[in-house]
Amino acid sequence: MPASLVHAVRGPVLNKTREVATLLASKSPIALRLMKELANRALGGDHAANLEAEGETFGELFSSEDAKEGLAAFVEKREPKFVGR
User: Fold this and answer.
1) 39: helix, coil or strand?
2) Do 81 and 73 touch, CB atoms closer than 8 A?
3) Which helix (H) or strand (E) holds 49?
4) Backbone dihedral region of 44: left (phi > 0), alpha (psi from -120 to 50 degrees) or beta?
5) Contact 42, 76 (CB under 8 A)
6) Phi/psi of residue 79, each to 5°?
C-alpha cells in the first residue's frame, strides 16, 4: 500500500526537515548565501577558478558584520544575532 509507506516516512522526514531548517535559520544569512553560491559553482566550471573564487569569498565573508558578531558571541558565550551584512 503506497499510502501507508508515505505516511510512515512522512513523520521522520518532516521532523528532520524542520530540524535542518531551524539549524540553517540560526546561521548568518550572508554566509548561507555565499556558501550556496560556492556549492552551485563547484558543480561545474574550472576547478582552479572555483578555488580562487572560494578564497575571495572567504575574504568577503570574514570581513562581514556577521563574522564579527559570530566571533564576539563565541567569546562571550552567547547566541549570535546575525543581521545579514
Assistant:
1) helix
2) yes
3) helix 47-62
4) beta
5) no
6) -75, 135
Question: Which triple of cell numbers denotes residue 80?
Answer: 549570535
> Residue 84 corresponds to which cell in the numbers above?
545579514
Q: Are 66 and 28 in contact (CB under 8 A)?
A: yes
**3-state helix, strand and coil shares in percent for the chain, rounded to the nearest 5:** 75, 0, 25
Distance CA 85, CA 74 (A): 18
Go through 37-57 and write b for each residue having 16 or more CB atoms within 10 A of its CB, e for each that does not.
Answer: eeeeeeeeeeeeeeeebeeeb
Query: Each residue of 8-67: pLDDT tens digit?
Result: 667 778 888 889 999 999 999 999 999 898 888 888 878 898 888 888 888 888 889 999
What type of residue sits at position 23?
Answer: L
